[in-house]
């Protein structure tokens, strides 16, 4: 048996984006490792630690036994506490220690993925994500790593990767979040539609529709009378929906038309970065 064909694009995207991170950080000096990112409280080193930790857990490695300091302002709930353990345990690692662990983790995880014999629909259990299919889990890992590749690129001022295979998977993961954000969190009215018109390296138009029961769905058909339309570029969309930045900071890159109060609720409902 070999890897299921439908999993291979996700595996290829994972390989490309995590190797991009490895290349980005391979020659960093100390000051660059310490540059802040758009993830609250996390430096470039911390983001790389998070990537390493996530892949180690995907490999089935035991979680570190580690007590967090009490003064980490960005640790606010069980999710951030869970994520912080893998970060804080590496906080004093040197650059060479970070790059060597990242490279070794990539080798181990790539070997595991090459030997993956499970089916895309097989259900796995994750401490943060709950139960999900293997296919969805792989896409979430691709999304997470691509998002952090972009965090690192912005911190180092080395743009790139916005149109990679992983970027297209990230788009789909972000779009899947929109129906809940708009229908439930922001309380868009029944029988309404919200349009996202996104330009740039990953270009798309999507409509989130709220039906008569208040349930949200997303599709690629235009709406004749949307209650709100957001027009922006791909990088700004990914930062907004991914919780990297609030709308006020990118107001010059975001055009909002329609019902202002609902638009504000939608923008306020996007998550805070992890």
UniProtKB/TrEMBL annotation:
The keyword rRNA processing does not apply. Pfam families: MDMPI_C, MDMPI_N. Residues 16-153 form the Mycothiol-dependent maleylpyruvate isomerase metal-binding domain. SUPFAM superfamilies: DinB/YfiT-like putative metalloenzymes, SCP-like. Residues 168-265 form the MDMPI C-terminal domain. This is Maleylpyruvate isomerase family mycothiol-dependent enzyme. NCBIfam families: maleylpyruvate isomerase family mycothiol-dependent enzyme. Keywords: Isomerase. The lineage of its organism: Bacteria, Bacillati, Actinomycetota, Actinomycetes, Kitasatosporales. GO terms for molecular function: isomerase activity. The keyword Isomerase applies.
């Amino acid at each position: 048996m070999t890897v299921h064909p439908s999993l291979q694009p996700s595996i290829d995207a994972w390989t490309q984006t995590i190797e991009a991170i490895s290349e980005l950080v391979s020659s960093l000096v100390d000051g660059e490792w310490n540059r802040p990112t758009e993830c609250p409280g996390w430096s470039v080193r911390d983001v790389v630690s998070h990537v390493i930790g996530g892949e180690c857990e995907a490999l089935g490695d035991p979680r570190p036994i580690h007590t967090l300091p009490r003064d980490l302002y960005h640790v606010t709930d069980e999710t951030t506490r869970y994520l912080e353990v893998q970060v804080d345990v590496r906080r004093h690692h040197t650059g060479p220690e970070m790059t060597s662990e990242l490279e070794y983790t990539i080798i181990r995880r790539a070997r595991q993925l090459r030997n993956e014999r499970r089916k895309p629909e097989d259900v796995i259990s994750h401490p943060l994500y709950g139960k999900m299919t293997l296919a969805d889990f792989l896409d979430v890992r691709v999304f997470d790593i691509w998002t952090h590749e972009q965090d690192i690129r912005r911190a180092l001022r080395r743009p790139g990767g916005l149109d990679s295979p992983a970027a297209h998977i990230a788009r789909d993961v972000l779009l899947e979040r929109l129906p809940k954000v708009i229908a439930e969190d922001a309380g868009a009215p029944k029988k309404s539609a919200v349009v996202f018109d996104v330009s740039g390296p990953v270009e798309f138009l999507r409509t989130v529709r709220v039906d008569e029961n208040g349930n949200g769905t997303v599709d690629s058909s235009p709406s004749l009378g949307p209650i709100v339309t957001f027009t922006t570029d791909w990088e700004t969309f990914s930062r907004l929906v991914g919780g990297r930045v609030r709308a006020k900071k990118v107001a010059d890159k975001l055009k909002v038309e329609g019902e202002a109060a609902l638009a504000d609720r939608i923008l306020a409902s996007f998550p805070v970065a992890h």
